Amino acid sequence: MAAKDEFGRAGEERAAAHLRSCGYAILDRNWRCPQGEIDIVAINDGMLCIVEVKTRRSESFGHPFEAIDERKRQRLWRLAFAWAAAHPDVARRRPLRLEVVGLLGMDARTARIEHLVDLL
After folding, report:
1. How many domains, in total, are found in the chain?
2. Contact 74, 66 (CB under 8 A)
3. Is the pLDDT of residue 99 over 80?
4. Residue 98 three-state SS
5. How far apart are the C-alpha atoms of 8 and 21, rounded to whole Å?
6. Which residues is 97 bridged to in the sheet?
7. What is the Cα–Cα distance from 72 to 95, expressed in whole angstroms?
8. Are 40 and 28 in contact (CB under 8 A)?
9. pTM of whole model > 0.90?
10. Domain with 46 in it: what CATH number?
11. Is there a contact between 15 and 39 (Cβ–Cβ < 8 Å)?
12. Sequence-separated (6 or more) residues with CB below 8 Å from residue 55
């Protein structure tokens, strides 16, 4: 596995641990369909949360949240609806929410974590 991929995977692990520590129940990780991939699917306070994880070593290419532009946000919504359609027993009557966990630092295990709870 390439160092970049290992770094991203470590970031996703750290993000999942962060979410669990905040009371989230992780339902799915790296769920794939023809439209793409969802990093983390979780439930928190009755909401079905679709969580994108962005891990960066520095802000040379911008803050991790800056990677979520309008096009990416629309894609995440399509993926959220695809996941809900594939898991109707879990998704039924649960409102959907998009979230982003950003990690910034040279080591994903110690990187600064920021969590944007409601990506409109």
Report:
1. 1
2. no
3. yes
4. strand
5. 20
6. 49
7. 20
8. yes
9. yes
10. 3.40.1350.10
11. yes
12. 7, 8, 10, 11, 12, 64, 102, 103, 104, 108, 111
Domain of residue 26 covers: 3-116
Q: How confident is the model at residue 109 (pLDDT cuts 50, 70, 90)?
A: confident
Q: Which two tokens stand for residue 6?
A: 């290992």
Residue with tokens 């919504």: 77
* CB 49, CB 41: distance < 8 Å: yes
Integer-rounded Cα Rg, in Å, for the chain is 14
Of 62, 70, 47, nearest in space to 118 by CA: 47
Residue bearing tokens 């803050």: 63
The per-residue pLDDT for range 49-89, each reduced to its tens digit, is 999 999 888 888 888 888 899 999 999 999 999 999 999 99
Q: Which two tokens stand for residue 16?
A: 């999942």
